[in-house]
Amino acid sequence: MLLSFVGRPLNSLRVSGALTKATVAMADALAKIPDVEIDPEGIFKYILVRVKVKDGDVHKDIVRGTKSAEYHNHIFEKVSPAMEALGMECKCLGGGKIEHKSQDKKLRVFGESTAFGKADHSVSVEKLKSAYSNYEITWSDDKK
């Protein structure tokens, strides 16, 4: 017979406490990942990525975009290993393009990724608004 404390098995008290601490630590690590990392100027490809704590349900969506990527999967190939190093896993939810005019404080989200399909630009725009609150940000389903 298993010893118990107030009707609970003793071993379950330790395990649940450890799991709670690990979950909180991973949620904190997830919170430290920037929502948006994009180039400061120009027209470039971007992806919307769901980052999730490995073996957990806690997740968030992030936007990554750069002129240095010839294809959308090049962005994902950099983001995924960086997230895995933090104990996360990620999935690309789609892509498109961003036009960033920093002098005019304007961002335009449009287009789609051949490899990953079209990101939900409305979700991407909400993320961009959190990082660029003083910008005019628009989006469309146009390809150009």
TrEMBL record:
InterPro entries with a match to the protein in the record: Janus (IPR007702), Janus_sf (IPR038596)
Pfam families in the record: Ocnus
Coiled coil: none
Binding-site residues for substrate, renumbered to this chain: K45
Gene3D superfamilies documented for this protein: Janus/Ocnus
Enzymatic reactions: N(pros)-phospho-L-histidyl-[protein] + H2O = L-histidyl-[protein] + phosphate; N(tele)-phospho-L-histidyl-[protein] + H2O = L-histidyl-[protein] + phosphate
The protein's enzyme class: hydrolase
GO terms for MF: protein histidine phosphatase activity
Chain ranges passing through the membrane: none
GO-annotated cellular components: cytosol
EC numbers for this chain: 3.9.1.3
UniProt record similarity statement: Belongs to the janus family.
Function text: Exhibits phosphohistidine phosphatase activity.
PANTHER family: 14 KDA PHOSPHOHISTIDINE PHOSPHATASE, JANUS-A/JANUS-B
Protein name: 14 kDa phosphohistidine phosphatase
